[in-house]
Amino acid sequence: MPNPIAYLVLFSWPLVAWIMYKRMPLERAFVWTIIGGYLLLPPRTEVDLPLLPPIDKLVIANLSAFFLTIFVAKVKIAFLPRSGLAKILLIAFVFMTVPTILTNGDTIIIDAPFMEVGPFEAAIRVIPGLVPREVISFSGALVLIHALPFLTARTVLASETGRRELLRALMIGGLIYTIPAVFEIRFSPQLNIWIYGFFQHDFIQMIRGSTYRPIVFLPHALWLAFFFVSAALATASLARVQPKGTRHKYIYALLWLMLVVIASKSMASATYMLLLVPAIFLFSEAGRMRIGLIFVVLALAYPALRNAGIIPLDDIIGFINQISGDRAQSLEFRFENEEILLQHANERRLFGWGGWGRNLVFSEWDGSQAAVTDGRWIFIFGTYGIFGFIAEFGLLAVPVFLIWLRRKRLGEGDNLTHTGTLALMLGITMFDLLLNAAIVPYIWLIAGALIAAAEKSVAVAQKAPEVHQSVLDIKPVKDEGPRTVI
After folding, report:
1. What is the helix (H) or strand (E) element at residue 108, kind and residue range?
2. Taking the CB of the first residue and of the last residue of the chain, which one, N or C, has fewer CB atoms within 10 A?
3. Are 205 and 244 in contact (CB under 8 A)?
């Protein structure tokens, strides 16, 4: 259980964010409010109010950034993207709870003969049906945790300056976070216990061989390893555009981050890093967009292929087994649980089963949970159905598609810088959501920055002085960041 320090730190974050907004450029203050809150505030610490989504570190950081951008930076935030497709997906995402709730008013009764019950309880478990008022809580969580940072980032990170500040924050945050991470690798994950008074996960999962996997203040060790991958990709992108005289400093930082990723003992994260860091140096912005697009397509196609039985699961497990027997066993466990959950989800495949555990499968023998939900995609599919999967994954995917389709309207200078890396990061995150549930806060900043770049390309094209004149023929203007709107 969190101690008083955890709640004090949690609710003091708006003050810390206000100081940053007063002393930093807007783009920097915004990204550090979101990323700093994610890294430093206590996990699994929340205040649960009636009818409202729980107030935790993600909600507090997002609300702080949103209101400070409006009232301190005096910047107006649009609530809908310019792209018609993005508008439809955003509205569907926010309101995908409505059809789910309307189609799940039935009560689920679990009657297992060997269920563990208390002395005054019946030998059944009842999961009540959903009621219309729960739209406020469910949709409110989607807005506060996901849509709000996406829309704020679309305004604040619309320039090359904003994209650079986002990558710098990931790089610096990653480098600073390696210090407590290395400590936990050596001495075991203890920092959250010492500072916030509790451990946020199953400690057994932190043990790998003779060492430990770090977790620090994040929900899971896999989330931390993936954050270090993001930091490494950001560092590589920044190193690529540096003058030769200063590039070596970024290379040293990159090598250190890569070593920490390997020491974190996450096979998936290490594989992502070893494949994608070289890609940033070898491919242009357009080439990185293309790779990111491939990952996006794989993420979108996987549920359909999985349902059709086309994915060669046994071959994948056999290949991984040649590398690591433990990792192959872990992957096989994920696939088995995914299959159980998928059969349950297909019973209400259009709008899903809804929340409060209705999307889960329980044992007919003792009423215990019969399958573990690891991947984000199976959670969304089981909870909100095909409609919800298309809404969420489509909203994440559309910035990559738009920036790819409109890449030829962008200039080759600052207008393109770092967009390829951000598309690559967004693509690999969506691919990782097939295995894990780490839909991290900064991924919505990346999506917002990308869709802003794609929309900006259209605006530039529309302002061209001649119909036949390319954007490449227009003299570049110094980027001064986003305009303030009173």
Report:
1. strand 108-110
2. C
3. no
